[in-house]
Amino acid sequence: MNQNFLKKIKRNDRMARWVITAGGVSIIFSVILILFLITKVTIPLFQDPTKEVYSRTPLPEQLQGQQVLAVGVDDYFENSYLFTDRGTLAFLDAGNAEIRKLVQLSGGAQLNSVTALGNHRYALSWSDEVLSLLELDFPPFFDADGKRTIRYEVKDRTDVAPPDIDEVPMRSLLAGQPGENLTRIDLLQDGRILIGREAVETDLFGNEEQTLSSVSLEEGLGLGISALVADGQGRYLYAGTHDGKLLSWDIGDLEAVEQLDHLQAFSDRRRITALALVFGDISLAVGDEKGGVSTWFPVVGDSGKFQLKKIHVLEPHRSAVTAISPSQRDKSLLSLDEDGIAYLDHMTSERHLLSFFTDTPLRNAALSVRGHAMIAANDQGQLSLWKVDNPHPEVSFKTLFGSVWYESYPEPDRVWQSSSGSDDFEAKFSLAPLIFGTLKGTFYAMIFAIPLALGGAIYTSQFCNARFRQYIKPTVEIMAAIPSVIIGFLAALWLAPLIEDRIVSILLGVLFVPLSFVVALVIWQALRRQDFLKRFDRGYEFLMILPVVVLTAAIVTVAGPLVEQGLFGGNFQLWLYNEAGMRYDQRNSIIIAFALGFAVIPIIFTIAEDALSNVPPSLKAASLAMGASRWQTVWRVMLPSASPGIFAAIMIGLGRAIGETMIVLMATGNTPIIDMNLFNGMRPLSSNIAVEIPEAPVGGTLYRVLFLSAVILFAMTFAFNTIAEIVRQRLRVKYGRF
Length: 738
What we know:
By secondary structure, the protein is of the alpha+beta class. The chain folds into four domains: 3-46; 50-394, Methylamine Dehydrogenase, Chain H; 395-430, no CATH class; 440-685, MetI-like fold, CATH 1.10.3720. Strands 1-30-29-28 form a four-stranded antiparallel sheet, with no helix packed on it. A four-stranded antiparallel sheet has the order 2-3-4-5, with no helix packed on it. A hairpin with a 5-residue loop joins strand 9 and strand 10 (148-150). The model has no long low-confidence stretch (mean pLDDT 88).
C-alpha cells in the first residue's frame, strides 16, 4: 500500500478520534453546565434569611425622658418615626436618628397606647378616653431646581369620642374606615364589651346619612379578658382570657351579633397575652404567657359549623409574649417577649426566620411594609434598625413536597396555586401534584405506546414480508417528524371533543377490539392450514385479521350510544359524577394516552425494530432448524437477544414522555391535582414551567421554584437513563453469549 496514503488515513483517523472525543466531552460539559446553572438559581430558596444592623443610635435630646410607645420605618431606609407617651410624633432620619419634624398630637391628654393597623396607619388611645385614627405619609417633593425633599404628613386624622358611660374602659380598639364602618370597641372593668359604630349610607339621589349604632356584649362577663383584637373591616372580634380561652364574635351587623367561638385553647389554662390577625385577616395569631406562638383559623367542625382550630405552632419564646406584629407583605409574624427578644417566623412554612436582640431588652418593634427592615426601641432609649434579607420565607421542604394546612382549607393538602386576584393571597408552591402529574401522564402514555410499538416492531422484523417492511418502517419513522405542537393541537381541539361524545364507545373498544384481535388470531391458527390461505401465511396475516378488528370497532361505535342509554341513563358523564363521585374533564388522561403515546411510538418502534433485526440470523435459523415455531423462536431467542436494545427503546421513549411539553400543555387541562382518575387531567412539570415562566418575576419565589422544577425534571430523566444503562449493560452481559 502507498505509504503516503497510509499515513493520510492514520492522520485522518487520529483527527476523527480527537474531534469525536472533543465533541463528546463538550456535550457532557454542556449538560453539566446547564444543570449547574439551573441549580444555582434554586439555591437561594433554601438559604437562611440574614439581617444586618443598619443603624443603632440614641434618642434625640428632645425626646429623652419620654416613653416610646410605637416605632416605624419606611421602605427606603430614609425615614423612621416614633410615638411617645406625651403625644409626640417624631419623624427621624433613619440613619442617625436626627429629628426631621416634630408633631404634637395631643391637646393636653396623655397617650396611653398605640396600635399599628398596617401601612403606616395607627390607632391612638388617649387618657381622656378619646381614640384617634391617623395615617402617616412621606411624599417626596422636588423644587424648581430639582432638589428632592421629603414632606412629613399626618393624613386623615379622625377622633372618636368615648362612649357615654361612667366607668373608664380597660382597653379600647378602633377598626374599619372613617365614614364607612368605623367601629370603636371598649373593654369595661366588669368584662362587658361595648361596640359602637358610625356608618354613612347613601340613597339613590346621592344624599348621605350618618348613622350611629351600639351594642353591649355580655358573653365576656367574669372571664377575665386579657387580649383583644378586631379585623381591619370591623366585622370580627377576638378575645383571649387569663385562663386560656378564645372567644370570637361576628359583629358585622350590630343588631344581630353572633358569638362564633368559646373554646379552651390551652389545656393547661395558660394566659393568653397577645392577639393579632395575620395578613389577610383570616388567621389569628395567639401568644401566651409561656412564650408559645400559634395561629388559628376557622375550620368546619363536627357540628358542621366553622370554629377556630389551632393549625400552626411557631418557634416558642423563653418568656411570655408581649406583642405580635404581622407583616404587611406575607404571612410572617414578628413577636416580642418579656425578655426583649423579637422573633420573626413564617406562619405557613412554620420556619423560624430571624431573632433580634440587643444588650438591653427591646420593648417596641415593627417591620417595614415590604418586610425588608425591622426597627425597635429598647429600655435605654436607643433605636436599632436592621436590614432584613428574607426573600423566600414561605419556602421549605415541607411546603414544596409535604402536606400543608393552608388558610381556608378543610385539611392539610399538597397544592400548587401560584397566583390569584387578591392582594393578600398566599401562593402555594407544592411540587408534589406536578411530579405526580408528570408520572401519571407518562404512565398512561406508556401503557398505550409500549404494546403497540413493541408489537409492531416484533411483527415488522420477524413476521412481516420483506417487501412490505420497506414501507412500514419509513412510514412509522415519519410519525416522529410531526411537530409536537400539531399533535397537541389536534388532541385538544379535535380528539378531545370527539372522545367526549363517544366515551362509552371508546371504553367498549378498549375492551373488545383487543379481545376480537386475540379471537381472530386463534381462528386464523385453525384456518391457516387451508391451501387457499397459505399464501397469506408469510407476512400478510394482518390482511385477514384487519377486517375483524375494523368490524369490531364499527360495532362498538354503533353500540356505544345504546349502551350509554341503557346503562347510564343517556349521560355517562353525569352518571360517573353522581354514582362514582368522579368528574369527567374533556382534556383527560385518555387524551394524553393517545396523543403522547402517538409521539412516543415511533421512537420505541424504531429502536426496538433495529435491535430485533440486528440479532444474528444464525440464531433464528438454528432455532427453526431445531423445530421451534416462529413464535417460539421470537419469544425464546430473538427477544432475549434483543432485550438490551428493547429496554433502551422503552427508556428513551419514557424520557421523551417525561420531558414532553407542548402536547401535555395543550391536551391535559393543566389541573395540578393528585388523582389517578382516568377521566381528569393533570399538570406535569414541563407544562407547568411553560405556563408559569412568562409571569414569574425574575428572582422571585415563583421564578426560583420553576427552576427547581427544571432541576427535578432533569434529575428524573437522568435517573431513568442511568437505570436504563445499568440494566442494558447487565442484559448485554447476560445474553452476550448469543
